[in-house]
Every structure is written in structure tokens, then in C-alpha cells.
């Protein structure tokens, strides 16, 4: 922020009558170009299944779901200071709720996704008041304990496969809402059509969550959170109260995380407690994405997820070594480039595609700046 | 006698958990750092002791001492080279760096030692037992683990309240800036604290390795047990941590007695219950 460079008149009394009006701006010229480009990109991605291979579609499902999880973790840990290492709890709960809905209640899979999100939100609402008693860093491990407890509880449900897990047969998924239409539209077999349907759901979630977080961070609630994070005492002294906002945010993030879990496991069609509640898959990767891309930016997770995708494609075959490399890279970035790749680039070239920072500017004559 | 057995088992298990927790509690108390790699560092220590006994053929006691020194130096260097750069008002960087460290150590151990379960060999000692009363005997190894935990707490308590190093620890914990004005070298105090934390963890590692088999994947669970012991006991009190470890051990032993699958879950639930009814822990320190 280049606040230092802005000259502010010393006092109101000295200001001449035709003095410029100061106003807070958020948008930039680049961000308006980015908005148009973003819409074009979303349209192109939505149309992609018409020409793309099934492998690419599956890779992009990974990219979209990880991006959504990363955005959600970023708003929780980066902006509101709730550093959770237990978000796998809500991925797992969403996944298990989806399977329970399909297997036990005979629900349509697509209809079960929002219900899975609601279930995760409900559990978050119950856990929140407990975990919020742990301050700062202790909240991190507390959320991890909660996730482990939920994993062990899910492993107790014998009708959902117990500790070893279960699969949904393709037959049970063949009547899914929209599947026949996708098959007819693109001329695909049921399994490939299911991937396309999941792809669209994942894209929709990624877009909605990103825009939702963007709108939230530009709202006064987002400003209050950022202020409270930066200096809790100063924020309180000017009347900023964030406890309620943080609590609601925690629940809403769990809701969206649960839906992501449901979407991911709708595509996998096989679940086990260890995989659905995996701290590596659903939290370590997500943290890696945010750290590498740049914490506290909307663009950072987008850059981060593309980097992770590249690393997964070329290094995942090396197993443990790959995770050693990821971990080391994350530590080095944290030490020497704490704002991540995007943060460093944004600072150097003054880039703001999704600006959430507020700038004090002089209003220019002519058209309004935004 | 079954109920009584369970209680003894739980108390003895609690000694191990208290040992896990001491190192974590130590650096949180002094520098407000939560080390997410704590469990994996315990595992690293266990594997180093294993290597020293098998590859170098050293007796367990000598190997342990060697690893205590190694881990102290490692902790000192870790603080000076890595953690020091990220400590500050923002809680995110230290958490993320130690989380990254946890992933690196865990997978590094997998690369170096494979996924097989290992065990430390302590000779006849590990299977022998002592009779406490007619018809009641406990394993020597678990008993020594508990005695070690009590001794470790007493020793740390002594260091904290009876030595100049302990005074520097407490002063820095209370107010780093003023401690520095009084001539305390804050950087060294922090580095010694991390070193001491890892040195204590070696004791935990040896006890862990003698009592049960271990593999590289169990580090994070050790961190969670350690954390639960600290929170149940109450922040800022070493004796409280010991008590917290015993409460956790009891909860796991009782849960495991009802249904073996519930052992770990019972511990987690006990933690959540304590958080609900006594959010500051069972024995919180009087001073903040």
C-alpha cells in the first residue's frame, strides 16, 4: 500500500473551497479488464468438455476443488486469523453425508450436495464455540483434534463401510439428475458424463466461492475482519466487533468445504475415513497452495493451484520425496517470500486483479473512477 | 481387578503422554510458539536412537545421551536459522513453517527408514514386571516411563525456578523487551528453549520406542496427544501437564477397555469435554 505517498491537507479549516474530494477506492483499471477476461475464461472453461479429453477434465476437477478449498482456507486463516489445520473435517463430513444420503436415504447425488454442506455447517456450528475457546495457535491444533475425532466417529458407521470404507456402484449413480442430458448433449458414456457433470459443479463452486469471498472482503464485514486481524486492540477501540462475524464465517466456510468434499467424492465414488479426513490431501496441499501463491489475496490461490498442479503432474510419482520437496518449498517461501509468488509479483508491478485493499484517492474531474 | 488394572494402565500411559507434552509446553510457555512438528521431531529422535543402537551398536543409554545432545544442537540451530525469522505478532508464519517441517520430517523418515514398524531393543528389561502388591504386578518399562516423567517435570521445575537460566526463561516469557534491557540475550534464550524442548523429546522418544513399535506416520498423533495433555492440564503449569497426560491416559485406557476401537476417540472426547466444562484446563497456572 502506498499510503505514505498520499498528501492529506493538514486541517479542514485551511482547505480552499475548490479542494479535491478525497475518497476511498477499491477498483483499479486492471481489475476492470480482469473482470471481463475472467468472464470470458469462465465461459471458455464451461464449454471445454465439448473438446477436452477425459484426463484433462479430471485434472481440472482437481484444480477447481483445490482452488475452492484454498480460497476458503485463505479467508479463514489469512483474513480472519482462524488458522485451522482441521478443514479436512468438513471435507470428510461432506463426503460422508453425500454417501449416507445416496446409500441410506436414496437421495439424488446432486441434491445431496447442498445437504452435505448443511451437515458440515451444522457440525461446525456445534464445534465452533468449543474451539474458539482456544486462542490463536492453539486453535490450529484444536481443529486438528476435532477432525481426528470426527474421522474416528465416521469409521464407526458399519453401514458406511466402517474403517475400510465403501464404494458406490455406477448403477446407483446412473439415475443422477442431469446425467442423461449430459450424455445426450456430448455423446458420452455414463462414466465420462458423470465426470463432466462433476466438472461443471466444481467450476460452479469455484466461481461462486471466489466471487463470494471477493464480495465479502470488499464489504464492511471484511474490512472489520482485516482491521481486527492487523490490530485487535485498535480495531476494538473504534468499535469494531468481529467475534460474531468470525463465528458466522467459520460456519459458512464449513458449509462450502462440505460441498467441495461431496463433489470430490461424487467423482471418486469410493470413500474411506483415512482418505476423506486426510490431513495431507485436504489441508497440507491447501496450505501449500495458499502459501506459494500468496496469503491474503484472491489471486494467490489461483497461482498456487496451478503451480501445485504442475508439481503433482511431474513429481507425484516420487511419493514421499515429492512431499519433502513441497514442504521444503513452502518453508523457503514463508522465509524469503512471505507474500508468495503472486504477492511478490503484485508488489513489483502493482497488479491488482481482485483488489481488496482500499486506496485513498483524489477524485478526478470527469467520469467517476468506478 | 479388571477396573483397577485399567486405572493403572491409564496412569502409566499418562506418563508417556506427559513426556510428549513437556517439550511442547516448554516452548509455548517461553516463546508462544506452537510447534506443529513436535510429534515428528519425537519420531526423528526415536529413529536416531534406533540408528545409533543398531548401526553403531551403542548401548541404549549411550545412544540416548548422544541423541539428546544432537537434538539439543538441532533445536538451537532450527531456532536460529528458521523459526527466529518468522516469530512475531502474526501467528500464521510460525504455524505454517512448523507444519511444513512436520511434512518434511515425516516423509524424510519414510524415505530413509521405510514404512515398517520399528522398536527399540532394551533387553530383558522391556518384558519384566514388578509386583506392587500380591496379585498386582506392573510392567517395569511403563513404570519407569512414569517415574521418568515425574523426574523430568521435577527437573524442569528446578531449572525454571532455581537457576539463572530459568530466571531468564521466565523473564523473557513475561516481557522479552524488558528482559533484553536487563541483559538477557533473547535470541539465545529462545534457541536454548527450543534445544531443551527437543532434548526432553528424546526421553519421550526412547520411552515410546521401548513401550511400543513406531513408524514414520505416527508423529502427528503424538503431537495431538501432547497438545491434549497440555490443554487438559492447563496452560503454563508443568505439573498440570503431567496431570493432563494422566487424565488423557485414563480416558484412553477406559475407552479402550469398553471397546478397543474407542481408545483414541475416548481421549479426544475427554479433551473436548474438558474444553467445554473447564476451558482453562484442570490445573491452570495462577499467573497468566
| Largest interface chains and counts | A-B, 44 and 43 residues
Strand content of chain A is under 5%
* Subunit arrangement of the protein: heterodimer
Mean pLDDT of chain B: 90
Distance between the termini of chain A: 19 Å
CATH architecture of chain A: Orthogonal Bundle
Rg from Cα of chain A: 22 Å
Q: What integer is the average pLDDT of chain A? A: 86
Spatially, the strands of the biggest sheet of chain B line up as 1-2
Write down the Rg of chain B.
19 Å
**Biggest sheet details of chain B:** 2 strands, antiparallel
Residue windows where pLDDT falls under 50 for at least 5 positions of chain A = 1-6, 365-370
In short:
The complex is a heterodimer of chains A (370) and B (288). Chain A has 370 residues and is mostly helical.
Would you kindly provide a written description of the structure presented here, covering whatever features stand out?
The complex is a heterodimer of chains A (370) and B (288). Chain A is globular, with a radius of gyration of 22 Å. Chain A has one domain (20-362): ABC transporter involved in vitamin B12 uptake, BtuC. The longest helix of chain A has 29 residues, at 190-218. Chain A has helices at 29-47, 54-79, 88-103, 109-131, 136-154, 170-173, 179-186, 190-218, 220-230, 232-237, 243-268, 273-276, 279-293, 299-315, 320-336, 340-349, and strands at residues 22-25, 166-167, 270-271, 359-362. With 370 residues, chain A is mainly alpha-helical. Chain A contains 16 helices and four strands. By secondary structure, chain B is mainly alpha-helical. Chain B has one domain: ABC transporter involved in vitamin B12 uptake, BtuC (Orthogonal Bundle). Chain B is 74% helix and 3% strand. Chain B has eleven helices and two strands; from the N terminus they run H-H-H-H-E-E-H-H-H-H-H-H-H. Chain B has helices at residues 2-31, 38-54, 60-86, 92-113, 140-162, 164-174, 176-181, 186-211, 219-233, 238-258, 263-277; strands spanning 129-133, 136-139. In chain B, helix 1 crosses helix 9 and helix 9 (219-233) packs across helix 10. Chain B is globular, with a radius of gyration of 19 Å. Chain B starts with a helix and ends in an 11-residue tail after the last helix. The mean pLDDT of chain B is 90. Chains A and B meet through helix 5, helix 13 and helix 15 of A and helix 3, helix 4, helix 9 and helix 11 of B.
Amino acid at each position: 500500500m502506498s499510503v505514505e505517498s498520499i498528501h492529506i491537507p493538514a486541517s479542514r479549516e485551511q482547505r480552499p473551497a475548490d479542494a479535491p474530494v478525497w475518497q476511498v477506492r477499491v477498483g483499479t483499471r486492471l481489475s476492470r479488464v480482469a473482470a471481463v477476461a475472467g468472464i470470458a475464461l469462465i465461459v471458455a472453461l464451461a464449454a471445454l468438455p465439448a473438446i477436452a479429453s477425459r484426463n484433462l477434465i479430471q485434472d481440472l476437477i482437481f484444480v477447481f476443488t483445490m482452488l475452492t478449498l484454498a480460497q476458503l482456507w485463505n479467508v479463514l486463516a489469512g483474513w480472519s486469523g482462524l488458522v485451522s489445520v482441521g478443514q479436512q473435517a468438513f471435507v470428510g463430513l461432506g463426503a460422508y453425508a453425500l454417501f449416507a444420503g445416496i446409500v441410506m436415504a436414496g437421495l439424488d447425488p446432486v441434491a445431496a450436495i447442498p445437504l452435505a454442506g448443511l451437515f458440515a455447517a451444522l457440525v461446525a456450528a456445534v464445534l465452533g464455540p468449543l474451539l474458539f475457546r482456544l486462542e490463536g495457535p492453539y486453535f490450529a491444533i484444536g481443529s486438528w483434534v476435532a477432525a481426528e475425532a470426527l474421522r474416528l466417529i465416521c469409521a464407526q458407521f458399519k453401514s458406511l463401510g466402517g474403517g475400510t470404507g465403501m464404494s458406490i456402484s455406477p448403477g446407483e449413480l446412473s439415475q443422477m439428475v442431469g446425467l442423461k442430458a449430459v450424455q445426450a448433449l456430448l455423446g458420452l458414456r455414463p462414466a465420462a458424463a458423470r465426470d463432466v457433470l462433476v466438472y461443471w459443479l466444481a467450476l460452479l463452486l469455484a466461481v461462486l466461492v471466489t466471487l463470494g469471498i471477493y464480495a465479502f472482503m470488499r464489504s464492511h464485514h471484511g474490512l472489520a475482519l482485516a482491521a481486527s486481524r492487523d490490530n485487535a486492540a485498535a480495531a476494538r477501540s473504534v468499535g469494531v466487533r468481529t467475534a460474531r462475524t468470525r463465528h458466522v464465517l467459520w460456519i459458512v466456510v464449513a458449509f462450502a468445504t462440505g460441498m467441495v468434499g461431496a463433489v470430490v467424492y461424487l467423482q471418486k465414488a469410493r470413500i474411506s475415513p483415512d482418505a476423506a479426513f486426510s490431513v495431507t490431501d485436504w489441508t497440507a496441499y491447501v496450505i501449500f497452495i495458499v502459501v506459494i501463491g500468496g496469503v491474503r489475496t484472491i489471486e494467490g490461490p489461483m497461482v498456487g493451484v496451478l503451480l501445485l498442479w504442475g508439481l503433482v503432474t511431474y513429481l507425484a510419482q516420487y511419493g514421499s520425496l515429492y512431499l519433502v520437496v513441497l514442504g521444503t518449498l513452502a518453508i523457503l517461501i514463508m522465509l524469503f517470500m512471505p507474500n508468495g509468488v503472486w504477492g511478490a509479483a503484485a508488489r513489483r508491478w502493482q497488479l491488482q486483479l481482485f483488489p481488496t485493499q482500499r486506496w485513498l484517492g483524489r477524485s478526478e474531474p470527469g467520469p467517476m473512477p468506478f | 481387578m479388571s477396573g483397577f488394572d485399567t486405572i493403572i494402565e491409564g496412569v502409566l500411559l499418562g506418563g508417556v503422554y506427559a513426556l510428549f507434552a513437556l517439550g511442547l509446553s516448554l516452548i509455548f510457555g517461553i516463546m508462544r510458539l506452537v510447534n506443529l512438528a513436535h510429534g515428528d521431531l519425537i519420531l526423528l529422535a526415536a529413529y536416531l536412537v534406533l540408528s545409533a543402537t543398531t548401526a553403531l551398536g551403542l548401548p541404549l543409554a549411550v545412544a540416548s545421551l548422544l541423541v539428546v545432545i544432537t537434538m539439543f544442537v538441532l533445536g538451537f540451530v532450527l531456532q536460529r536459522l528458521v523459526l527466529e525469522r518468522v516469530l512475531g505478532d502474526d501467528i500464521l508464519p510460525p504455524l505454517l513453517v512448523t507444519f511444513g517441517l512436520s511434512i518434511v520430517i515425516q516423509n524424510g523418515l519414510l524415505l530413509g527408514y521405510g514404512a515398517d514398524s520399528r522398536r527399540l531393543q532394551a533387553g530383558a528389561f522391556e518384558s519384566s514386571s514388578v509386583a506392587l502388591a500380591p496379585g498386582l504386578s506392573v510392567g517395569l518399562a511403563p513404570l519407569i516411563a512414569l517415574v521418568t516423567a515425574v523426574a523430568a517435570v521435577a527437573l524442569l521445575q528446578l531449572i525454571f525456578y532455581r537457576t539463572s537460566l530459568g530466571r531468564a526463561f521466565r523473564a523473557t516469557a513475561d516481557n522479552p523487551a524488558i528482559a533484553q534491557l536487563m541483559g538477557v540475550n533473547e535470541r539465545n534464550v529462545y534457541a536454548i528453549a527450543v534445544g531443551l524442548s527437543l532434548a526432553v523429546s528424546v526421553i519421550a522418544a526412547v520411552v515410546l520406542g521401548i513401550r511400543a513399535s513406531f513408524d514414520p506416520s505416527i508423529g502427528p498423533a503424538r503431537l495431538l496427544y501432547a497438545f491434549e495433555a497440555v490443554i487438559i492440564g492447563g496452560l503454563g503449569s508443568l505439573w498440570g501437564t503431567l496431570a493432563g497426560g494422566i487424565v488423557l491416559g485414563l480416558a484412553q485406557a477406559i475407552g479402550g477397555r469398553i471397546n478397543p476401537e474407542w481408545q483414541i476417540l475416548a481421549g479426544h472426547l475427554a479433551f473436548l469435554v474438558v474444553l467445554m466444562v473447564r476451558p482453562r484446563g484442570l490445573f491452570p497456572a495462577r499467573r497468566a
